[in-house]
Design a protein that fits this description.
Blueprint: H1 2-5, H2 10-42, E1 55-61, H3 67-80, E2 84-88, E3 103-107, H4 111-118, E4 123-128, E5 144-149, E6 170-173, H5 176-189, E7 195-198, H6 202-213, E8 223-226, H7 235-238, H8 240-248, E9 253-256, H9 262-265, H10 267-276, E10 283-285, H11 292-297, E11 300-303, H12 308-315, E12 320-323, H13 342-350, E13 351-354, H14 362-370, H15 372-389, H16 396-413
Parallel strand pairs: 1-2, 1-4, 2-3, 4-5, 5-6, 6-7, 8-9, 8-11, 9-10, 11-12, 12-13
Helix pairs in contact: 2-4, 3-16
Length: about 425
C-alpha cells in the first residue's frame, strides 16, 4: 500500500522530469547572467569595443546561417564609411573573415553565453532576426535603447512563436500584408503599436544581382531539384523512396538537396536513401554551402513550406511544386488572427500542390508546370506575388541603412 501510493505513472514522471530540467536550466542561466553582470560592474561597465560608450548600432546574429541577411547591410555600412558593430554567436561566422574597416565583427560566445552578453548590451540600436525578445531568455537590456527586427525570409510575419515580435520597437518589412498582420495582432492584444517600415529583402536583392551577372543555364534535359525540409512532415519522411522512384521514371535529371539538419536528426534515413540512390546519371545529391548554383541550374523546385520556395520562384522566376503538410497554428502568433496566411493563399497560384493522391503522377505535374498554358499562368502569378512581398527590389540594403541612420539621429537628439 505504501509503495503503491508512491507510484508515478510514466506520463506524469516525464512531465516532472521536464519541469526539473527546466528549473535547472533557468538556474544555470541565472547564475551565468549574474556572473557576467558582476564582471560588468567590476570593470565599471566598460564594453570591449567602445571603451565605455554606448554602441551606436549593433547587429546581433544568432549564427552564420543568417549572414546572408546581414551581409548586404554590412556592405552598405562599409560603403558609407559608417561604424556598425556585428555580434555573432558562432565562431565560424563568415563576417569574421571579412576585411572590413567600419564594420566591427566579434564572436561573443555560443548559446546562453551570447544571450547573456546581449542582455547587458549598451547600444542605441540593436538589429536582429531573433524573435521572442523579452519572452524567453533574451531580455531587453536596460542599456539597449531601440530594438529593430528584420525577417530572414519573404513570407508571413505572424508565424513566429507566440508573442514573437511584441516587445520590439520596430519591424522592417517587405510587404503591406505583413504590416497588416502586425497591426491586427497589436489591436487584438491591446499593445502599443510598433514602428513598421517597408524596406525590402536585401538578401534576395543580392541573389537577383548574382543571377543578372551569371551566365544563363542550358540543360539537355529538365533538372528537377528536390529540396525538402527535415522532420516528420518533410517530403523525404512522408513520401520517401516512392516519390524518388516516380521522379526517376520521368527521365529528367533529379538533384536531391536535403536540409543540413536531416544529416543530424535523420541520419538513418539519409544513409538509407543515399545508399539506395548513389550519385549517378539519374540522381545526384547536393550539399553545397551556397545554394545559388543549384537553384540557378534547376528548372523546377519541389519542397515543403520552406523559404526556398520564394527564393526560387521570385528571384529565379521558375515554377515550384510544394508539399501538402499539416500546419498547426496553435503555437504561433497567427493563432490569434482569423485571416488566412498569405503563404497559403499565394502558393496555389505560383505552384502546384503535391499530396498523397497525386504524387505518383509527379511526371505530368512537372511537365505541366514547365510547358504550355499552365506555365504562363504560373509566371503571371509570380509577378503578382513579387509585387506583394518584395518592395524596393534591388534597394533593400540601402533602405535598411537609411532607416537605421535616421533612427539613430532621432534617438541621439534626445
Amino acid at each position: 500500500m505504501f509503495y503503491s501510493s508512491l507510484y508515478i505513472d510514466p506520463g506524469t514522471g516525464s512531465m516532472l522530469f521536464s519541469i526539473l530540467i527546466g528549473i535547472v536550466g533557468v538556474l544555470v542561466f541565472a547564475i551565468r547572467t549574474f556572473w557576467i553582470k558582476l564582471k560588468f560592474v567590476i570593470t565599471g561597465g566598460r564594453a570591449k569595443n567602445n571603451h565605455g560608450r554606448s554602441l551606436p548600432i549593433c547587429i546581433f546574429s544568432e549564427g552564420k546561417r543568417y549572414w546572408n541577411v546581414f551581409h548586404p547591410i554590412c556592405d552598405e555600412f562599409e560603403k558609407r564609411k559608417i561604424d556598425v558593430y556585428y555580434y555573432t554567436a558562432t565562431e565560424d561566422d563568415p563576417a569574421l573573415k571579412e576585411n572590413y574597416k567600419y564594420v566591427h565583427p566579434e564572436f561573443i560566445g555560443e548559446g546562453n553565453k551570447a544571450i547573456s552578453k546581449m542582455n547587458l548590451i549598451r547600444a542605441d540600436i540593436i538589429l536582429a532576426t531573433t524573435p521572442s525578445l523579452d519572452v524567453f531568455q533574451w531580455k531587453r537590456s536596460k542599456e539597449g535603447k531601440y530594438y529593430v527586427h528584420i525577417p530572414h525570409m519573404a513570407n508571413d510575419i505572424n508565424i513566429y512563436r507566440m508573442f514573437g515580435l511584441d516587445f520590439y520597437d520596430a519591424v522592417l518589412l517587405s510587404g503591406q500584408y505583413q504590416a497588416d498582420q502586425i497591426r491586427r495582432l497589436e489591436s487584438i492584444r491591446g499593445i502599443q503599436p510598433k514602428e513598421l517600415k517597408l524596406v525590402g529583402i536585401p538578401y534576395m536583392d543580392v541573389m537577383r544581382e548574382r543571377l543578372n551577372n551569371s551566365s544563363k543555364t542550358s540543360n539537355e534535359r529538365p533538372v528537377v531539384l528536390l529540396a525538402p525540409s527535415w522532420g516528420e512532415s518533410g517530403i523525404l519522411k512522408v513520401y520517401g523512396k516512392t516519390l524518388i522512384d516516380a521522379l526517376i521514371d520521368t527521365g529528367y535529371e533529379i538533384v536531391i538537396r536535403p536540409h543540413p539538419q536531416s544529416f543530424v536528426s535523420e541520419k538513418e534515413l539519409m544513409d538509407s536513401l543515399m545508399t539506395s540512390y548513389p550519385d549517378g546519371d539519374k540522381v545526384s545529391w547536393n550539399r553545397d554551402a551556397d545554394n545559388f548554383d543549384i537553384l540557378n541550374r534547376a528548372d523546377i523546385l519541389i519542397s515543403d513550406f520552406s523559404g526556398v520556395l520564394f527564393d526560387f520562384s521570385l528571384v529565379f522566376d521558375k515554377p515550384i511544386i510544394y508539399a501538402d503538410t499539416e500546419f498547426d497554428r496553435s503555437p504561433y502568433d497567427c493563432a490569434w488572427d482569423d485571416e488566412e496566411l498569405w503563404t497559403f493563399k499565394v502558393l496555389p497560384t505560383i505552384g502546384r500542390e503535391l499530396n498523397k493522391d497525386n504524387y505518383l503522377n509527379i511526371g505530368n505535374m512537372v511537365s505541366d508546370c514547365l510547358n504550355g498554358s499552365e506555365a504562363e499562368e504560373l509566371a503571371i502569378a509570380r509577378d503578382k506575388a513579387r509585387e506583394e512581398t518584395w518592395c524596393n527590389i534591388d534597394n533593400g540594403a540601402e533602405k535598411v541603412v537609411d532607416y537605421l541612420i535616421a533612427k539613430h539621429k532621432e534617438i541621439t537628439k534626445t
